[in-house]
Write a structure and sequence with these properties.
Elements: H1 2-23, E1 48-53, E2 58-63, E3 69-71, E4 75-76, H2 79-91, E5 93-97, H3 103-113, E6 115-121, E7 124-134, E8 141-146, E9 158-161, H4 177-180, E10 184-186, E11 193-200, E12 207-213, E13 216-220, H5 233-241, E14 246-247, E15 250-251, H6 257-262, E16 267-273, E17 278-284, H7 292-296, E18 306-311, E19 315-320, H8 321-324, H9 337-343
Antiparallel strand pairs: 1-2, 1-6, 2-3, 3-4, 5-9, 6-7, 7-8, 8-9, 10-14, 11-12, 11-16, 12-13, 15-19, 16-17, 17-18, 18-19
Length: 344
C-alpha cells in the first residue's frame, strides 16, 4: 500500500513538472531557452541580411565576395558599417530578463519602433529577430527573437548588450540605402593611375599628369598641351598617393541641385586608371552657411569648408576641403622647390 502511494506521488510530481515546462516555460523563460539565442557565431557563413522597419523601409545586404557586400544589389557597402554590423551580430548577449509585468510596454515599443532582421546562409534563413529601442539607462536594447522556421515570434523579449560596450545597438541596424552606400570616390595606389587631369575654369592652373612608364610621367597643360619641364618626380609620386582614400560626405538632394549642375563648375577632374576606367568629377562652390562668417571672423563668398561635386554625372554629393583639398593643386606644386626659389 505504501509502495503504491509513493508511486502515485512520484507520478503526480512528474506530471506537474511536465505541465510546467509545457505551459509556463516559454512564458517565463530563463537564459537557457532557445528564445534568447540571438548571436550568430559564424558570421563568415552569412550571405544575406534583410532589414525592414515599421515605416515600410527595407534594405537587403548581399555578400559579393569575402570582403565586399552590396546594398539592394545596386551599390557597394561601406566597410566600416558592415564590419560593425557583423561584429554586433556575433557578440549579442542577454543582459537581463524582462519581468512578465513589463512585457506589454516592451512589445508596444517593438510594435512601433522595431527593425525586423532576417539573416541567411545561402537560401536558408538562420536567424530572425526584432531590434527595438534602448532601455532607460541607454545601456541596453530591447530584442525579440523570431523562429526562422515558421516566422512566429517568441513571447519573451530581452534586454541585449555587447560586453564591454556602453551604449545601445539600435543605430547599427538602419534601413537607409544611402546610409549603407560606400562613399568612396577614389581608392587607388599610385601605380594604378594612368592619368589625372584638372581643368580649372578660372585662371591658367590646369594640368594633366600622364604615366608613361614606371616612375615616368609627363605633365602638360590639357588645353595647350605645353609640357612642364624639369618637374619634381617625387612631388608627382606624392600627389598620386593622395588618391588612396577619398570619399564624399553625403548625397545632396536640394531644390537648387539642377541649377547648380547647369552652371559652370570651378573645376573638372578626370582620373583614368590602368584598366581604362574613368572617374569624372565636376566641382561647384557652395554658398556659405549662416554661421561661417561668425565662426571664422571673415566674410566669405563661398563655403570655405565644403564643395558640391557631381560624380560621373550621377551622384550630386557634398565633399570636404579637409579631405579633397589636397587634390586641388596647380602646376607649381610639381616644380622643384630649389627652382621655384631661384625664380622668385
Amino acid at each position: 500500500m505504501k509502495n503504491n502511494r509513493g508511486t502515485l506521488i512520484a507520478v503526480v510530481i512528474l506530471l506537474l513538472i511536465s505541465v510546467y515546462f509545457l505551459f509556463f516555460k516559454n512564458s517565463f523563460s530563463t537564459f537557457s531557452g532557445k528564445d534568447n539565442e540571438f548571436a550568430v557565431i559564424d558570421t563568415g557563413s552569412v550571405t544575406r541580411i534583410d532589414m525592414a522597419d515599421r515605416q515600410n523601409q527595407h534594405i537587403s545586404l548581399t555578400r559579393v565576395n569575402a570582403g565586399q557586400w552590396k546594398v539592394n544589389d545596386k551599390y557597394f557597402v561601406r566597410n566600416d558599417a558592415m564590419n560593425t554590423l557583423l561584429y554586433t551580430m556575433r557578440m549579442l548577449t542577454v543582459k537581463t530578463l524582462i519581468d512578465r509585468h513589463g512585457w506589454d510596454n516592451v512589445i508596444k515599443n517593438l510594435a512601433t519602433n522595431a527593425v525586423k532582421v532576417d539573416i541567411y546562409s545561402g537560401d536558408k534563413k538562420i536567424k530572425s529577430y526584432f531590434v527595438g529601442g534602448q532601455t532607460n539607462d541607454h545601456m541596453g536594447t530591447y530584442f525579440l527573437l523570431v523562429n526562422p522556421r515558421n516566422d512566429e515570434n517568441y513571447k519573451q523579449p530581452y534586454v541585449i548588450y555587447i560586453p564591454g560596450f556602453d551604449g545601445f545597438l539600435t543605430t547599427r541596424y538602419f534601413v537607409s540605402e544611402e546610409g549603407w552606400r560606400d562613399r568612396t570616390i577614389f581608392r587607388y595606389y599610385p601605380n594604378e593611375i594612368k592619368s589625372v587631369t584638372l581643368n580649372y575654369t578660372a585662371g591658367d592652373h590646369s594640368f594633366s599628369i600622364n604615366a608613361i612608364g614606371k616612375n615616368k610621367y609627363v605633365i602638360e597643360n590639357p588645353v595647350t598641351h605645353q609640357t612642364l619641364p624639369n618637374f619634381d618626380t617625387s612631388a608627382v609620386k606624392q600627389y598620386l598617393t593622395y588618391f588612396q582614400s577619398i570619399s564624399w560626405e553625403i548625397v545632396m538632394n536640394i531644390p537648387k541641385k539642377d541649377s547648380i549642375i547647369a552652371s559652370a563648375p570651378i573645376c573638372v577632374m578626370d582620373v583614368k586608371d590602368t584598366t581604362g576606367k574613368i572617374t569624372d568629377l565636376r566641382l561647384y562652390n557652395r554658398n556659405p552657411p549662416d554661421n561661417v562668417n561668425a565662426k571664422y571672423g571673415k566674410d566669405y563668398t563661398y563655403d570655405p569648408d565644403r564643395l558640391y561635386a557631381l560624380v560621373n554625372g550621377k551622384d550630386f554629393v557634398l565633399i570636404q576641403y579637409y579631405v579633397f583639398g589636397k587634390l586641388l593643386q596647380d602646376p607649381s606644386y610639381f616644380v622643384h622647390k630649389s627652382t621655384a626659389s631661384v625664380e622668385k
